[in-house]
Amino acid sequence: MRSWKIPPDNANIAKYVDCYWLLEKTQSDSGPEYPKLNPDPAAHLILSEPEQYYQYEHNAMSVTGHGSHLILPHCKTILMDHSRPFLVIGVKFQVGALYSLSLPIDQARLDQVISIDTKKLFKSEIDILTQPIDQPEALRNILDKFLMPCLLKIYEDKHSNLIYNALPILASTPISEVGAALGCSQRTIERSFSRVTGLTLKQYQSMNRLEIMLNHLYELEGKNINWGDFAAKFGFSDQSHLIRYLKTNIGDTPGNYIRQRDLAIDAYGNFE
Predict the structure, then answer these.
(1) 3-state helix, strand, coil in the chain (%, to 5)
(2) Residue that terminates a domain, selected from 117, 133, 151
(3) 230 and 250: one domain?
(4) Is 262:36 a contact under the CB 8 Å cutoff?
(5) Which of 110, 124, 147, 197 is the most exposed place for a label (fewest CB within 10 A)?
(6) Is residue 107 domain-shared with residue 174, that is, in the same domain?
(7) Cβ atoms of residues 144 and 10 within 8 Å
(8) Are 240 and 203 in contact (CB under 8 A)?
(9) Cα(61)–Cα(111) distance, rounded to whole angstroms?
(10) What is the gyration radius of the CA atoms in the chain, in angstroms?
(11) pTM greater than 0.70 (yes/no)
(12) Tens digits of per-residue pLDDT, 22-49?
């Protein structure tokens, strides 16, 4: 198993790309064959060889294909078929970046995986097998150059600018106070946020809280967990509230999840 992640080196690209990441699974590697992706407000571009197979499923979607593809922001937990060896390079976009990059993608299409022709979309293509995948810094420079043409088509408007100002304060500001903190009406921020990200403010905050919780559980490495204390730590009224939240967001109770450890973070570590 090989994995790493690294932020862009170019500051202009970093405004729209959170990080690049790599994941390789060989025939001899063990781990869950069908790990799950937890809900994520960011889109991920997956670069792979044209013959590389992929499959993603949730209760309202089943997508299979080959080659590069785009995982749009998703509110649902997505089951992946990782039963075969694979090598992929990922580009994790900043939340709302697809709106500013003017890609021919309807950002409002949540919970979808879309096949991508990188040559058509980015005016160039990248051959995974010829890249220095064991040299993150060198590959980062290649990816920065690969994505640069998108920066020539940047689209910024009042909605995107408002959301870029809102994102840094959402972790510490109640939703009902976000509009006032930004000097606009609550209705304005809600509408702009949905337009740019495809999500509601509540969905975004819930996804962020879930990611922090899952990272914390990963770091505990199977140690005994007092779920009552855990619920209080993350702002739940009681353990029952926590159970309902996890069942809604990852489709499982806390106890079952700890026994199965079947999310991507458990299979591959906190590299992405």
Answers:
(1) 40, 20, 40
(2) 151
(3) yes
(4) yes
(5) 124
(6) no
(7) yes
(8) no
(9) 8
(10) 19
(11) yes
(12) 999 998 888 789 999 999 999 999 999 9
